[in-house]
Amino acid sequence: MVDHQHGSMNIRDQEKTFSGFVRFVTYAVIAIICVLVFLALVNA
Q: What global pTM score does this model have?
Protein backbone atom coordinates (compact mmCIF):
# COMPACT_ATOMS: atom_id res chain seq x y z
CA MET A 1 0.00 0.00 0.00
CA VAL A 2 1.31 3.44 -0.95
CA ASP A 3 1.79 6.04 1.78
CA HIS A 4 -0.54 9.02 1.58
CA GLN A 5 1.04 12.31 0.53
CA HIS A 6 -0.86 15.30 1.87
CA GLY A 7 -2.11 17.66 -0.84
CA SER A 8 -1.62 15.30 -3.79
CA MET A 9 -5.28 14.39 -4.47
CA ASN A 10 -7.16 16.02 -7.36
CA ILE A 11 -10.06 17.94 -5.77
CA ARG A 12 -11.35 19.74 -8.88
CA ASP A 13 -14.73 17.95 -8.78
CA GLN A 14 -15.23 18.73 -5.09
CA GLU A 15 -14.40 22.40 -5.71
CA LYS A 16 -16.94 22.58 -8.56
CA THR A 17 -19.61 20.89 -6.43
CA PHE A 18 -19.00 23.25 -3.50
CA SER A 19 -19.07 26.27 -5.82
CA GLY A 20 -22.41 25.15 -7.23
CA PHE A 21 -23.79 24.60 -3.73
CA VAL A 22 -22.73 28.07 -2.61
CA ARG A 23 -24.28 29.62 -5.73
CA PHE A 24 -27.55 27.72 -5.13
CA VAL A 25 -27.72 28.81 -1.48
CA THR A 26 -27.01 32.42 -2.43
CA TYR A 27 -29.82 32.48 -5.00
CA ALA A 28 -32.18 30.71 -2.59
CA VAL A 29 -31.52 33.28 0.15
CA ILE A 30 -32.06 36.15 -2.29
CA ALA A 31 -35.34 34.59 -3.46
CA ILE A 32 -36.52 34.08 0.14
CA ILE A 33 -35.72 37.70 1.01
CA CYS A 34 -37.61 38.91 -2.08
CA VAL A 35 -40.65 36.81 -1.14
CA LEU A 36 -40.58 38.14 2.43
CA VAL A 37 -40.35 41.76 1.22
CA PHE A 38 -43.22 41.14 -1.21
CA LEU A 39 -45.35 39.62 1.54
CA ALA A 40 -44.57 42.56 3.84
CA LEU A 41 -45.58 45.07 1.16
CA VAL A 42 -48.80 43.26 0.23
CA ASN A 43 -49.86 42.80 3.84
CA ALA A 44 -49.26 46.44 4.80
A: 0.74
- What distances in angstroms separate CA 26 from CA 5, 9, 12, 20, one per listed residue? 35, 28, 21, 10
Question: How far is C-alpha 16 from the chain's CA centre?
Answer: 10
Phi-psi domain of 38 (left: phi exceeds 0; alpha: psi -120 through 50; beta: other): alpha
Write out pLDDT tens, residues 1-32.
778 888 888 999 999 999 999 999 999 999 99
SS (H, E, C) 1-44: CCCCCCCCCCCHHHHHHHHHHHHHHHHHHHHHHHHHHHHHHHHC
